[in-house]
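Title: Prediction job returns without error message
Component: structure pipeline
Severity: low
Priority: P3
Assignee: unassigned

Description:
Job completed but the reporter wants confirmation the result is attached to the right record. Sequence as submitted:
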Amino acid sequence: MSKTVNSTFYRELLQWWADLRIAFSTKPSISYNIIWINKDIKIDNKTIYYSNYVKTGILPINHLQFNKNNIESYNSAKSKGLKHTNFLVWSEIRSAVPAHLKDLDVTESELESCLEFQCGEKKFNPTVCKNKHL
């Protein structure tokens, strides 16, 4: 069913909305790529958050390195600075990621641009800011 919209404002608004939906309908949301507090990644029916992993910079799913086996990926993460964890925790996190999310890939620049926000003249990146900065 087609309707005619006489108002230029509403016609442009509807066109903008249609263009926006088309632009994002084929792209998975960046939020699907984040491990922490992800509704699809749960351990014991609870979303997970490990601050030591976040401090190391392990945020998107591809940082769990599914292209490697558990031991190789764990050793690689440890060599990049992951502390205060063990192989069993690492394996549990990796096994909590559903198969349909393991192939998602996000670049560092996509992740940073998604997480960064601006307030006035100041830019904030929650991955590096402390609570007092926010």
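Comment from assignee: result matches the submitted record. The CA atoms of residues 4 and 99 lie 45 Å apart.
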